[in-house]
Amino acid sequence: MNDSPLFATVRAETPMGTRVGLTLLFVGASAIGVAYAAAIVQGQAPAWAPWCLAIGSAATTVGLFVIGAATRRALSRPVAIFLTGLFALLLASFGAALEMAPGEASGGPLLFGLPVRLAIVFYGVGVVPLVVLPVVFGLTFGRTPRADGGSS
């Protein structure tokens, strides 16, 4: 670790929640970059590349939420629990879609009016977080400390 005054200042002035969010964002973006780079170098995507994209997408999304929700100290417990669950949901949604047998027929089964693979990703990645995230933030809004030390 570099102990220069510049890095000490950055570490001291950056809230813990923001550091965690930036780390998740960096790791997620790196995983996505590695998957794309491997596909470009090899001319086709290796078998592990879709999993790198799934993990990277989940980490990047949650990292951005953590940065947005971080306060001066850290995330509130309910928000941290929700974001951990969100990471698991995103990873499970992408993973389930990756593990399904390829080549769904056009006349295949539907889940809530969509082909099963699309429904898992659409509802797991889009709809559930869209509905639950505002509720969690709304319920914890009054208990979250502000950057100036007060309560919002």
Summarize the structure.
69% of the residues lie in helices and 3% in strands. The chain has helices at 5-13, 16-42, 49-69, 77-99, 116-140; strands at 110-111, 114-115. A hairpin with a 2-residue loop joins strand 1 (110-111) and strand 2 (114-115).
Descriptive report:
- The chain is an all-alpha fold and 152 residues long.
- It has one domain.
- The chain contains five helices and two strands, in the order ααααββα.
- The protein has a two-stranded antiparallel sheet with strand order 1-2.
- Helix 2 (16-42) runs antiparallel to helix 3 (49-69), helix 3 runs antiparallel to helix 4 (77-99) and helix 4 packs antiparallel against helix 5 (116-140).
- The protein is flat and about 50 Å long.
- Residues 6-10 have low confidence and may be disordered.
